[in-house]
Design a protein that fits this description.
Chain A has 11 helices and 14 strands. Chain A is an alpha/beta fold. Chain A is elongated. By secondary structure, chain B is an all-alpha fold. Classes of the chains: A alpha/beta, B mainly alpha. At the A-B interface, helix 2 and helix 3 of A face helix 1, helix 6 and helix 12 of B. The structure holds adenosine-5'-triphosphate (ATP) and magnesium ion.
């Protein structure tokens, strides 16, 4: 069983419930986004899935290893980027990485060139002999990412990977994440950066102690039964003809764009036929999408109620 | 869960490297052996300087009222100093691992390096083994090095009076090679257990350091004349510590697991 399978997972600290009844699956090659406000239980979930905390309830399998039983085998195949970089300040970047290569019992002669590639990519090339204590926040974060990858893990958990990174570095990291996924690795990304999640993740889960929503980003962003149509010229010209349609109770026009609220999705072709009939040149017609941020904030609002 | 020596050695390698670069810790580690070596040499030297001082005899009579008239009081006091000082010298193998192990276990928590470390395949037993070695090896090496300096220093200073090497004697040789490592193991065990419970290296150091108090107290008892030290006396101390070592080892194996370490972050 590859990928990640989570079933009814929960964790209590004393009488505080950090996470409860969490269920989801992540396929190999997928980047799964874990969203949620501060204290929602994202880090706790990731800690359970990497064998650092044992679940109070439910079960989870990561790359075929039960998290509550096969801790050691599990930790060989997962890479965890922790919330805090957690580097040894007095050691050099290279020594920090060598330590983890040794812990994974790797052949350093083979593992080092791979690590060096990442260092170069992240702009740390040539600085590997310096003590990490002198690194900036972003440099530490990038070094911690390289450390997460030294043993070529099959499953990767990234807890806020781009926090503290400049836009260019953030992009380099995103590219690397996308590349790792395309190589068939399973990736879980915790982030507060919604546009990043949108760019990287096919599916997301929104948590706040419980799972509030889960699904493909496009689906979550679907704004009810609405259609966004782009036409040639001013869209306003077609408001009247559309208003006469019985199944399109509400139409908005803005520039060359029309948003048509539908009683039923099945009427989308009729709307287009009507527009074309009225002489419109249609460039595109797509299901209307709301910004992820709006969807996310609404979900949390509902979760509160 | 199999024990992989390579992973334990990785932890040892890292901690030892870190220790070598930790100037502050090295300095505090160097102070103790220096005092432990220089103080008794100074005391011996003061006896050798004025061997016929009348007051020396009174002091010697305090410890041994049956001291023969012909015997040299200075020589008697030198022997007594060397025997008693061994109890003090034992503070070093206890204290050095406390300094190192507190830093290395509680320090990992304090600097948030423990979580990535625990997310690697290393087991709790490998971690404790690697960290303990990184504290024990320097402690034992420092103790032996200090012992060599001590022997050379005492022999040079005492030569004008005794005209023969006093050190190393049977008590010290047995003590430094057998009893001192047992004490080092004890100091390390205490520091590891306490460090796993508290979240600051400083606090771990301060709490662990309390264990040297009974040792100092016993030396006080010797100087006050209540306790008479000798080979058997120290061997008994060693036996008691051996039992304590076994208890500590058992407790560390039982009490140190991942979950406990992770969820006790301050
Ligand atoms: N070791 C612990 N002991 C007690 N409570 C804990 C512990 N770890 C986490 N919690 C609690 O569990 C809840 C979830 O915390 P968690 O760190 O998982 O949140 P998060 O989603 O990662 O938040 P953030 O976005 O701020 O990183 C919080 O209420 C937190 O106080
Ligand atoms: Mg978090």
């Amino acid at each position: 069983m590859s990928g990640i399978h989570v079933e009814g997972l929960g964790k209590r600290f004393g009488d505080r419930t950090a996470v409860e009844g969490l269920s989801f699956h992540v396929r190999p090659g997928e980047v799964f986004g874990l969203l949620g406000p501060n204290g929602a239980g994202k880090t706790t979930t990731v800690r359970m899935l990497t064998g650092l905390l044992s679940p109070s309830e439910g079960e989870a399998t990561v790359w075929g290893h039960r998290v509550d039983r096969d801790g050691e085998a599990l930790r060989k195949v997962v890479g965890l980027l922790t919330e805090q970089p957690g580097l040894y300040d007095r050691l050099t970047a290279r020594e920090n990485l060598r330590f983890f290569m040794k812990l994974h019992e790797l052949d350093e002669a083979k593992a080092w060139p791979r690590a060096q590639d990442y260092l170069r990519r992240f702009g740390l090339g040539g600085r590997d002999a310096e003590p990490v204590g002198g690194f900036s926040k972003g440099m530490r974060q990038k070094l911690a990412i390289v450390r997460t990858l030294v043993h070529d893990p099959q499953v990767i958990f990234l807890d806020e990977p781009t926090s503290g990174l400049d836009p260019e570095s953030a992009r380099t990291v995103r590219d690397a994440v996308a590349e790792l996924a395309s190589e068939g690795r399973t990736i879980v990304l915790c982030s507060h950066n919604l546009s990043e999640v949108e760019r990287l993740c096919e599916r997301v889960g929104v948590v706040k102690r419980r799972l509030l929503a889960i699904g493909p980003v496009r689906e979550l962003r679907r704004a009810g039964q609405a259609l966004d149509v782009r036409v040639d010229g001013e869209a306003e010209r077609f408001l009247n003809v559309l208003a006469s349609l019985p199944f399109a109770p509400n139409v908005l026009a803005e520039g060359a764009r029309l948003r048509v609220m539908l009683a039923d999705e099945a009427h989308a072709p009729d709307v287009l036929a009507c527009l074309v009939g009225a002489g419109a040149r249609v460039h595109s017609a797509v299901p209307a999408q709301r910004p992820l941020e709006e969807v996310y904030l609404d979900l949390l609002q509902e979760g509160r109620g | 869960m199999a024990f992989r020596p390579r992973r334990a050695m990785a932890v040892f390698w890292k901690d030892f490297l870190d220790l070598r670069k930790n100037l502050g810790l090295l300095v505090s580690m160097a102070v103790l052996p220096t005092v432990m070596v220089l103080v008794p040499i100074g005391v011996v030297w003061s006896y050798v300087r004025t061997p016929n001082h009348a007051d020396l005899r009174s002091v010697a009579m305090f410890y041994d009222p049956n001291l023969p008239l012909g015997a040299s009081a200075a020589r008697f006091l030198i022997d007594k100093t060397l025997t008693d000082w061994f109890g003090m010298f034992l503070v070093m193998p206890v204290f050095v691992p406390i300094l190192i192990a507190s830093q290395s276990v509680a320090g990992e928590k304090e600097r948030r390096t423990l979580e990535p470390l625990l997310a690697s395949p290393v087991t709790a037993a490998e971690l404790v083994t690697g960290k303990s070695l990184a504290a024990l090896v320097p402690a034992v090496v420092i103790t032996w090095a200090a012992f060599i300096c001590f022997c050379v220093g005492v022999d040079i200073v005492a030569w004008p009076l005794v005209q023969m090497p006093l050190m190393p004697n049977a008590l010290w040789t047995f003590g430094v090679f057998v009893i001192a490592p047992l004490f080092a193991f004890f100091g390390n065990g205490v520091a590891v257990l306490i460090s796993a419970r508290v979240s600051e290296a400083r606090m771990a150091q301060q709490l662990s350091a309390l264990v040297v108090l009974p040792l100092v107290g016993m030396v006080g008892g010797q100087v006050a004349g209540f306790l008479k030290a000798g080979l058997a006396y120290y061997a008994l101390q060693g036996a008691v510590v051996l039992v304590l070592d076994a208890i500590l080892l058992w407790a560390s194996i039982r009490l140190l697991d991942r979950e406990r370490l992770v969820s006790r972050w301050g």
